[in-house]
Amino acid sequence: MNKQDIKIGVIGLGYVGLPVLSLFSQKYDCWGIDNDVLRVEALKSGTDTRKCQSNEELSQALRLSYITSDWSDLGQCNVYIIAVPTPVDKENLPDITHLEEVCKAVGNILSRNNIVIFESTVYPGTTDEICIPILEKTSGLVVNKDFSVAYSPERINVGDKIHQLDNVPKIVSASNQQALELVADLYGSVINAEVVRASNIKVAEAAKMYENVQRDVLIALANQYSDYCREEGIDIQEVTDCAATKWNFSNVRPGLVGGHCIGVDAYYLLKRSTQKKVDLPLVITARSINENKALQVSNRITAYAQSIRIDTKKIKILILGFSYKANTPDIRNTMIATIVKSLYGTFEIVDCFDPLVDNYEVELRYGIHMLNPDQLQLDKYDIIVKAVNHDVFDNFIGALPIMVDLNVFL
């Protein structure tokens, strides 16, 4: 397949897929598809409520590519990049429903000599044992004879202005050597970073798991060490600052683990390890520590409130920020939801305000009513907790009654 003949279909236009589409459309003919018709229409009109791309980047992507919700529009593509969500369900079990459905849809339009590239995060073995069989069954084609498959795990860091898609090393893997070289050249043509070739797909899948599970474990250690420092009467932030002066210390701070990656991928690994009858007690413990941190924080907020007023039932509290991390509207698996809900009934008023998030989406997903800007009256609250360090909240300093940073409660 010659580069000039490549036509790319990007499947899933969320936090990963839209930046991927935007990047590849600068050099290749691209089509982007999402099953959310309302999102597709919004993107076509130049609006991205998730802020996956800047207005300028979105405008460029719209000029250089075609966005649709109709699968027949992708029939002329010969490279498919799949970037759909792989969340967990209410029992914290992997939910690959979206991935399976997309594999069937791609199978229906798959042709000989096509390449299917997966970017969605999955546990090792998913591509070979689940995705490829679906593609073969639906298309009637045979992998490595009629078509090829590749896996290149996404490394999108939502809200990060430094580590961008085009400057972060990219892992690539494939079902055969020819496809591996083509996919490596494809990504290499649009990024200004190293392209790392894994020996097989399962290695690349496992590498992605390891990246995020390691982070989860390190944050759990920081959270646990913070509890210890609290009992000693010393500041974990200062302790970390001092320790970080050593060259090989991992400068990880205590915090709430939310979002679509770190707090999710451990459950994918644990599912697979159970199938393989391998115990991972450290991973399980880390997940437990980080899952319980939000309730621990809410208990400390309550204790703090009791320390400044005896009757907590009369206290009015405002939580600033709802997304899972600073300067992003992403509310997936945000631990702030747990904090807010656990404070209901403890205080007279528990309000939450975040100008970056979609209030309707918050209420739909979490059942939490968010304040609109015109409803915000800062002087009515006894306590304000800055739960997420959005830059926009810097303007509030000096205009607030009692404001406490979330770090105090970690």
Folded structure, characterized:
This protein is α/β, with parallel strands linked by helices. It folds into 2 domains: 3-199, 3-Layer(aba) Sandwich (Rossmann fold), CATH 3.40.50; 292-409, NAD(P)-binding Rossmann-like Domain (Rossmann fold), CATH 3.40.50. It is 40% helix and 12% strand. It contains 12 helices and 12 strands. It has helices at residues 17-24, 37-44, 55-64, 97-109, 126-139, 177-188, 201-232, 236-243, 262-275, 281-308, 336-343, 359-366; strands at residues 7-11, 29-33, 65-68, 79-82, 115-118, 148-151, 170-174, 195-197, 316-320, 349-353, 383-386, 403-405. Strands 3-2-1-4-5-6-7-8 form an 8-stranded mixed sheet, with helices on both faces. Strands 10-9-11-12 form a 4-stranded parallel sheet, with no helix packed on it. The protein starts with 6 loop residues before the first strand and ends in a 5-residue tail after the last strand. The model has no long low-confidence stretch (mean pLDDT 93).
Name a few traits of the molecule.
alpha/beta, 410 residues, Rossmann fold, 2 domains, globular, eight-stranded mixed sheet
Short description:
The protein is of the alpha/beta class. The chain is built from twelve helices and twelve strands. The strands form two sheets. The chain has an eight-stranded mixed beta sheet with strand order 3-2-1-4-5-6-7-8, with helices on both faces.
Question: Which helices and strands appear, and what pairs or packs with what?
Answer:
Blueprint: E1 7-11, H1 17-24, E2 29-33, H2 37-44, H3 55-64, E3 65-68, E4 79-82, H4 97-109, E5 115-118, H5 126-139, E6 148-151, E7 170-174, H6 177-188, E8 195-197, H7 201-232, H8 236-243, H9 262-275, H10 281-308, E9 316-320, H11 336-343, E10 349-353, H12 359-366, E11 383-386, E12 403-405
Parallel strand pairs: 1-2, 1-4, 2-3, 4-5, 5-6, 7-8, 9-10, 9-11, 11-12
Antiparallel strand pairs: 6-7
